[in-house]
Automatic annotation (TrEMBL):
<dbReference type="InterPro" id="IPR002563">
    <property type="entry name" value="Flavin_Rdtase-like_dom"/>
</dbReference>
<feature type="domain" description="Flavin reductase like">
    <location>
        <begin position="22"/>
        <end position="176"/>
    </location>
</feature>
<dbReference type="InterPro" id="IPR012349">
    <property type="entry name" value="Split_barrel_FMN-bd"/>
</dbReference>
<keyword id="KW-0288">FMN</keyword>
<dbReference type="Pfam" id="PF01613">
    <property type="entry name" value="Flavin_Reduct"/>
</dbReference>
<protein>
    <submittedName>
        <fullName>Flavin reductase</fullName>
    </submittedName>
</protein>
<dbReference type="GO" id="GO:0016646">
    <property type="term" value="F:oxidoreductase activity, acting on the CH-NH group of donors, NAD or NADP as acceptor"/>
</dbReference>
<keyword id="KW-0285">Flavoprotein</keyword>
<comment type="similarity">
    <text>Belongs to the flavoredoxin family.</text>
</comment>
<dbReference type="GO" id="GO:0010181">
    <property type="term" value="F:FMN binding"/>
</dbReference>
Length: 198
């Protein structure tokens, strides 16, 4: 194998970011709803997203720079991670438009809101999963801020459940790849974990 080397010290930050986001793939998308201190709802996709702790349940996403979602969450201490489902592809992308802070993306994009059970920011009514979070902490890393949220409540559309458990075929989550590329779930394989038996 002949490899090409990429040195983050030698490349412009933007170039290395393009490389990183092309190779750390696929990334799940947190469709984050939040509410400003003034009461304006906000919705934006974040693909730097994962589970960060099991007990207590904590999820994290990263705001690259300071954006409305981050400001709202710092101000109010609450947000909702909505699953980004394939049928809402266009709306998810449109919600990443850099609207000014006073714009409610739900209203702008014609997306219905649904009240949350435990937090003030609304859920996306058409998203099959909502994780209602209270701000756990933030971590400033260079130009980015990692936002950790304790999951207070999970609300799942019963139509995506099989025997009480979410089915990947029914959730149809979108994922982010490099550049403007997105992906859907491809072939799903199952393989049992192998336990060391001595
Ligand atoms: C699929 C997708 C994933 C994105 N992931 C991130 C991310 O992880 N972090 C980030 O800061 N911006 C991300 N963005 C860009 C934000 O969604 C965009 O800057 C948006 O305007 C932020 O909205 P806000 O200012 O209302 O918070 C992503 C955009 C798209 C389309």
């Amino acid at each position: 194998m002949v490899r090409t080397d990429f040195d983050p010290q030698a490349l412009p930050a933007r170039e290395f970011y393009r490389l990183l986001t092309a190779v750390v793939v696929p990334r799940p998308i947190a469709w984050v709803s939040s509410t400003s201190g003034a009461g304006v709802d906000n919705l934006a996709p974040h693909s730097f997203f994962t589970v960060s702790c099991v007990t207590p349940p904590v999820v994290q996403f990263t705001s690259v720079g300071r954006k409305d979602s981050l400001r709202n969450i710092e101000d109010t201490g609450e947000f909702v991670v909505n699953l980004a489902p394939e049928p809402l592809f266009e709306q998810i992308n449109a919600s990443a438009t850099n609207f000014p802070p006073g714009v409610d993306e739900f209203a702008e994009l014609g997306l219905a809101k649904e009240p949350s059970a435990r937090v003030r920011p609304p859920r996306v009514a058409q998203s099959p999963v909502a994780l209602e979070c209270s701000l756990h902490s933030t971590l400033l890393l260079g130009d980015s801020t990692v936002v950790f949220g304790t999951v207070l409540h999970a609300a799942v559309d019963e139509r995506v459940l099989i025997d009480g458990h979410p089915s990947i075929d029914r959730l149809r989550p979108l994922a982010r790849l490099g550049g403007d590329e997105w992906s859907t779930i491809g072939e799903v394989r199952e393989l049992a974990r192998i336990r060391y038996s001595g």
